[in-house]
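Example 9 (inverse folding). The structure is encoded as follows.
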């Protein structure tokens, strides 16, 4: 019996072409054709609503592919036209093409599929032509709406800018009215040293530019904030010149000590170690603070010749 390789099951069968009638092959064929029919039905459903087939392009959503078992390759489901995506356009063009029709006939012949299911996996060329014409009209209509939206946004921006200019001009007009009512004698420069008065400065005009110094703020009685370095004795923070808390104490050593000293801590630690030793051990009650001399024990050689007994090696 000749060895037959089945591309649908992806394995070699040693029963020859009898493998095409096996239960496993028929089950895989039904599942594959069901997925292809589902994709074809979804693509043909897009023909009924062409206006909804034009959307904004999103790579994560419109770059998907559909596997075609007849042609043995993946087909892009949607097409891209600039910044817009045409839903199901790529799959419909593939299903209506002559290459897919030839490969479908070969697939049906090689896998012994039901002939009645073949037309469900094809799209007539006339139907695709109608879809293409309707899609072109929908695309032009979408472009027209986009242009109208852009023009409307531009008009709104111009209207906003016009209102801002009118608001600024009205504010400048209100600022110039007191000067016109005061008369020309108010801002006449004096002949003496007071020629640097506030009236000598050029007032802001329509160009919103001021060429001279505006000293009118000095006439108000508002309290100004001093931003320089202020010398405050013992008050404030380090930014105002005050000493930090750790340097503000007296340097004569009279500061209070918080907690035990280091020597007391070492003594306490030594006591804690002694508490862990057996109570009945030899020398447990020996007083290490007692005053002793070299003659307190007889000489037994170099072991006790120097230091206390507990310090010897």
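The amino acid assigned to each position is listed next.
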């Amino acid at each position: 019996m000749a060895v037959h390789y089945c591309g649908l099951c992806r394995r070699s069968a040693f029963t020859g072409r009898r493998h095409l009638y096996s239960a496993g092959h028929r089950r895989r064929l039904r599942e594959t054709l069901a997925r292809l029919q589902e994709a074809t039905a979804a693509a043909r459903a897009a023909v009924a609503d062409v206006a909804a087939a034009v959307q904004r392009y999103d790579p994560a959503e419109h770059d998907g592919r559909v596997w075609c078992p007849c042609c043995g390759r993946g087909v892009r489901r949607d097409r891209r036209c600039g910044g817009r995506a045409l839903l199901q356009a790529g799959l419909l063009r593939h299903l209506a093409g002559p290459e897919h029709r030839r490969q479908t006939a070969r697939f049906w012949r090689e896998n012994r599929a039901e002939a009645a299911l073949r037309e469900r996996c094809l799209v007539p060329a006339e139907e695709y032509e109608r879809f293409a014409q309707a899609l072109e009209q929908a695309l032009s209509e979408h472009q027209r709406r986009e242009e109208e939206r852009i023009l409307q946004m531009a008009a709104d921006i111009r209207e906003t800018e016009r209102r801002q200019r009118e608001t600024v001009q009205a504010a400048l007009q209100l600022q110039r009215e007191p000067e016109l009512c005061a008369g020309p004698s108010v801002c006449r420069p004096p002949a003496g040293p007071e020629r640097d008065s506030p009236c000598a400065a050029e007032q802001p005009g329509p160009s919103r530019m001021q060429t001279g110094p505006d000293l009118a703020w000095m006439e108000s009685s508002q309290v100004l904030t001093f931003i320089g370095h202020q010398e405050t004795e013992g008050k404030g923070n380090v930014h105002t010149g005050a000493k930090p808390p750790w340097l503000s104490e007296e340097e004569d050593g009279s500061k209070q000590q918080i907690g035990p000293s280091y020597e007391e801590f070492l003594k306490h630690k030594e006591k804690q170690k002694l508490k862990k030793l057996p109570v009945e051990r030899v020398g447990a009650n020996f007083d290490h603070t007692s005053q002793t001399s070299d003659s307190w024990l007889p000489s037994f050689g170099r072991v006790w010749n120097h230091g206390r007994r507990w310090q010897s090696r």
